[in-house]
Queue: 2 jobs
Job 1
Amino acid sequence: YQTFTGNLKWDNKDVTYRILNYSPDMEASLTDDAFARAFKVWSDVTPLTFRRLYDGTADIMISFGKADHGDPYPFDGKDGLLAHAYPPGEGIQGDAHFDDDEYWTLGSGPVIKTSYGNAEGATCHFPFLFEGQSYSTCTTEGRTDGLPWCATTADYDKDKIFGFCPSELLSTFGGNSNEAPCVFPFVFQGEKYDSCTTDGRTDGYRWCATTANYDTDKQYGFCPNRDTAVIGGNSEGEPCQFPFTFLGTQYSSCTSEGRSDGKLWCATTSNYDTDKKWGFCPDGGYSLFLVAAHEFGHALGLDHSNIKDALMYPMYKYIEDFSLHEDDIKGIQYLYGPKTGPDPTPPEPQFTTSSPILPTKSTPSEKTTTVSTTVHVDPSKDACQIKEFDAITEIQEELHFFKDGYYWKISNKRERKGPFLISEKWPALPAVINTAFEDQLTKKIYFFAEKQFWVYTGNEVFGPRKIEKLGLPSNLDRVDGAVQRKYGKVLLFNGETFWRLDVKAQLIDSGYPKFFDSYFGGVPTDSHDVFLYKGFLYFCRENFYWRMNARRQVDRVGYVKYDLLKC
Amino acid sequence: WCVPLKSVYVTFPGDVIKNMTDKQLADEYLQRYGYIDVLQKSGLQAVVSTSKALKQLQKQLGLEETGSLDQPTIDAMKQPRCGVPDIRN
């Protein structure tokens, strides 16, 4: 896998997205669902969450467009380039664009969601039997109103279950008419129109008026493509006209005659020779779900992979039952760490040095004993690129740096080791912790994450328990720093206040909280981390630290990554 | 027995004419996806860098790294793909 230069990624875990417009190829709810499933591919393996916005600016703005669609990278017509996306960041960064000269489906032919009828929105079943004849597209047969319909089971004659296919006679999308159907004929710029048109637009999208006169009413909507609609050509979206005449011969189905590339096409009027109106016949199309999952990988910070089966491989390949490749998982977890949190995932067998043992069934607060080995993860994850660590603390005389599910440590010989997976050494912990400390008397290690804490004694863990249990206020959302003092006391920091914990009593001493600046002058009051290291107090903000000596004097200010992380 | 239809090829109005030569297709592809710097030198340097670029592309796509514009490479270039360049300059 590859990431973009500088490991571009979203700092916020709750990423927002907004769908700016739709393709006429797929009904809007099918498009919404395809995008939601494409985001789920990534949220299933990271701490990321994706929230849809319906107005304003989202992190990831999604849109369809053709050819020159408003950024410096025009699309190229049918096939070839399918879509592109930008790496995380402001403005166009993070956005995803899909080429609407492509035929968007779920990868194996048209997905026609019906409306009305008695099929309750089920999708068409092709082929289906009607009056003994087999149909592989929607049809207007059997109706006088010209509305295309289909059966949603294989045999209409037997089941009598049907629904109407997307058609401009039934509804439009986008525009300003709340999906009202077209009105034919309608007047536009003084001319009469009996069908949808691209006139008046440069983006090639077909539209119609939803009243008889656009010039006076300015009411319009975009026309959904029918399932027999042609793609590209000079009649994008128009349905094939069967039979049609080409070079004097009549054709009742799509043909590749006249073309050297073998692509199937049809005329959209009854006589190609005179009207020259044509387009490509719908093929399997491209899976909007698969292409979106790939593009969202870019929008989250992944570049192309050279693993052929990886989702982030640049070439499109339709996969029926998709699952993320391990290369993609490693790549996205390199940026955001592994998934944490409530989803019930079957416990992974913990490996002793000899053989796998299944984890003891335990409720979190019970004592659980797991034997695990620390496994090195991808060494290319570079601690020196990290601007701000989740937590820094000294454990067993080595300074530990925690970030998004990983940690590094600096030995006494000043060499940096890691990254290691937190979950391998302390499996009960979430990926992101806020602070930690090792009690100097008992050598127990306390970890804090939001409103919970865990206590590890070797491989045994107690927790999670609420920080309120220690006597901290119920509205305290996190503990940012911890500094061990003499006689089994530990100072716990949050913003401009701190408390003193009696570790033995497991309770906050009375008379607390106290305010920071009356005790610790000259250091930032919004330190994101405070820890004790070799007798000095360190207050960290961004990638700087302020060091305070035992007489509470600030005797040094420096860089976390050069002075402490030894980059 | 039927005489094979003599296929008549017609030019369809509005068809995105893509009958570029393979060389043109390759040059456009290598530039679009970052294998060749757009400010491409000319002459001998161009030939050398095209061969090098082709090798890079063949490596990225898991093809045999011949450095020449062979059929598997041309076919791969005609495959549908993502528009994000493979190599960022």
Job 2
Amino acid sequence: REQPHGHDEL
Amino acid sequence: MNIFRLAGDMTHLISVLVLLLKIYATKSCSGISLKTQELYAMVFLARYLDLFSDFISLYNTVMKLVFIGSSLAIVWCMRYHRVVRRSYDRELDTFRYWILVGACFTLALVLHEKFSFQEVFWAFSIYLEAVAILPQLVLLQRSGNVDNLTGQYVFFLGAYRAFYILNWIYRYLTEPRFTRWISCVSGLVQTALYADFFYYYFISWKNNAKLQLPA
């Protein structure tokens, strides 16, 4: 799932 | 989530646990760079500003809390714990890291995905993490022999970003619009900085000898 500013990684 | 990223996060978690074990079990932080620990605390605080604003998953939130909490706890321990602080190699850990912090922040102001407070700090955290290990590597070279737990800590810390590179390749191949140049280039630089450490770590493992980094 893409996040609003795209950072779904740690 | 893919297996490479999960392996990367678990390897990162293991590196934190190994460091906590070393400090807790030996009540000593000899061979550990406080400067690197402080840089990592800055990395996590700058990167996880969205901790309370964007809920991605329970796993994501828990891991962010673990990384922020452990890095701050280790910095506190090395600075203020009356037993542990005595074993800190103050005279060897002299890397002037504010130059790194300033350079990374300046770069983040120029190169970012979007010019917003959160995005600039996110890019700053990515650049800073790439060079955060430098004080630790310098300290290892100066302090000569490296105890096993410290060597394992640095090894796992370097290996986790290598797994992330595999994760980025996998996502690039499987997700249509996946591009993360800032993370990828920084991740490559970060992993490359460990190259000589990995080499000497492998040699010591092969010869079953003490890890020795050339001065």
